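It would be a great kindness if you could assist me with a short task in structural biology. Thank you for your consideration; the sequence and its tokens are set out here.
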Amino acid sequence: MSKKTIMILFAVGIGTFMSALDSSAVNLAMPTIQTHFQVSMSMAEWVITSYLLIVSSLLLTFGRLSDLYGHKKIYITGFIIFTLGSLLCGLSVSIVMLIAFRVLQALGAGMLFAAGPAIITSSVPPESRGKALSVTAIAVALGLCAGPVIGGTLTTILNWQSIFFINVPIGIFGSLLAFVKIPEQKKEKPSIPFDKLGSVMIFAALLLILLPLNLSGSQRISTWLFLLLLGLGLLIILAFIAMEQHIKFPMLNLTLFYNRVFTASNAAALFTYMAQFMMVFLTPFYLQNLRGYSAFLSGLLYLPMPIATMLVAPISGIVSDRFDSRYISSGGMLIMAAGLFCLSFLTPSTPIAYIMVCMFFTGIGFGMFQTPNNSAIMGNIPGAYRGVASGILATMRNIGMSIGVAISGALFSVCQSKGTVLYAKRGLSGTLLSHTAFAYALRITFLSAMVVALIAMTASLVKGKVKTEQEKQIERSGQRESS
């Protein structure tokens, strides 16, 4: 891989890591932020919810904009907006200001997420795509999983503002690096108009679907309002699909989903992130509430997972460039399912070494899955739609995360109540009863996450053969000779 390509990957990796990190690092600072502004927990949680909602709802829009106006232009704009938003978040003097600037920050993060994989796919030879896309896999995994460690450390040593201020020098450096090193994209069809109505509709639909899912995890929404918002979102999606089929220049080319590899790979991504975040959401409660570990130590216990992903993702990317990637990604999900199965046996006295080994194997499975799956998605669509494809993939990730958190929160609560009644009848009481009920609920929820991981494995398997670039070249040569 040339030095030029490495610098492009580095520039994309920085932006992807920063935007993923910020979505998880802030979580551990929430109690400090709540105390600082003297607000309720429900108000403080909008610092996280607003960011996730805006990022998730605009990924498709930013992906389409990057296809029309250039991936580099959208990516650098996102970098600048994200950096400015980070600075303003750190300078906020009220919770309302912080939430507003988190929305600004999310606009930049959405641009970074949507344009990053498209830049890599356009900038590297097809035969090295899997290896190159492992950079985004590593960046996202490290950002999401190392966020609690970094967020806890900065908040403990400095203050909550440092979580945002640290983005400023990195953002300035990353913006300049991207401007200098990322090549300009040749826009083949600059006259194509942007589908404004379609953009508004898909934004509204995703917002209405994701809002109740995010709020349901903390039980801040009634059942009727949950169903109403979800129903409205689904109705708008149906209207959006009907409209997009009848306009000349749609925001989302629905024919992309006729491609079996593309559709099944995106479905596999959704279920993978759902399974992962069913575990990621509950593990801090186990470590801090049941085991009594500090936020800092709890963050450290997450480290085996991103480390394993960081080690495995480049290898799986290289292998996927040479062999049918569905078997690699499916094998990864089988390993991740095994890791979740082992985590389902956690108790109040489980050794730390056991927890770390389970996290490590879960990270191995995720690393084996993500890069080959991303490569299959980005390598099976026309070049003119790489931005949209990148946006769809990122949307699947965020929807999977939201659904995973919502399901795990609801399922855990139901099972914990059931476990309390069940074990009380068997004579348990006090701390022993609460700990046993907690472990029971955790086991059921993690076993459910294992089932979701196996569904992701199945989706990855049924997508059919994923041809390598060498096989595609041979096929094209044969077609030219026959013609």
Observations:
- The first helix runs from residue 3 to 25.
